[in-house]
Design brief:
Length: about 200
């Protein structure tokens, strides 16, 4: 069954849509403050589909992400009491506590590290607001950390370009089914108490 190749083809067609950069900017903003989907899932196919625009797309993603991070900071600064009950009951509470510990240990460097951390960036932006971190170091660390991540994604996709797109299209079904099998195996091991 070629489910993944048809999804891949649809994603690549969509990434060439004239409004795709606007959607990328919106997703980048939202992910930095409240939305769970990272912008890499849009940036990567868009940069692969249009390698000459990869740097502009990375810049757009970075700026929108930092602006969203400032919104996340404002949520933490002004509205943490309102979201705390929800946060404590969600899967984000432990990462939030980890982010706060990182702020205590490394200050603004924690925001830079957040660009590559498995902890969602939105957790760091909200935690920075709660900690009332100085805004200028927060913004600069966000620009550098997020920019490094998004420009790296864009560089890899730009380097691969059409060759990578064609190769991925040929093997995407095998990769997709292998990923499904690995997830099922991991789940089974976890359920049987081996994880």
């Amino acid at each position: 069954m070629k489910i993944f190749s048809s999804l891949f083809a649809r994603t690549m067609r969509w990434s060439r849509h004239p409004h795709a950069p606007w959607y990328l900017a919106l997703l980048s903003f939202a992910e930095s403050s409240f939305f769970p989907v990272p912008p890499d899932v849009m940036l990567a196919p868009m940069a692969m589909a249009a390698p000459r625009r990869a740097w502009a797309l990375a810049l757009l993603t970075t700026v929108a992400s930092v602006l969203g991070g400032l919104f996340g900071y404002a949520i933490g600064y002004f509205a943490f009491a309102g979201i705390r009950p929800w946060l404590e009951g969600s899967s984000y509470w432990e990462p939030y506590l980890q982010a706060r510990a990182w702020f205590d240990a490394w200050g603004a460097w924690a925001v830079f590290i957040a660009g590559f951390s498995p902890i969602p960036y939105k957790v760091f932006t909200i935690a920075a607001g709660v900690a009332q971190m100085a805004l200028l170091p927060f913004t600069l660390a966000s620009l550098v950390g997020r920019g490094a991540r998004f420009f790296l994604v864009a560089a890899l996709m730009r380097w691969g370009g059409e060759r990578m797109e064609a190769r991925l299209h040929r093997i995407i079904d095998r990769l997709g089914w292998a990923s499904v099998a690995a997830l099922l195996l991991a789940y089974a091991l976890y359920r049987w108490g081996w994880g």
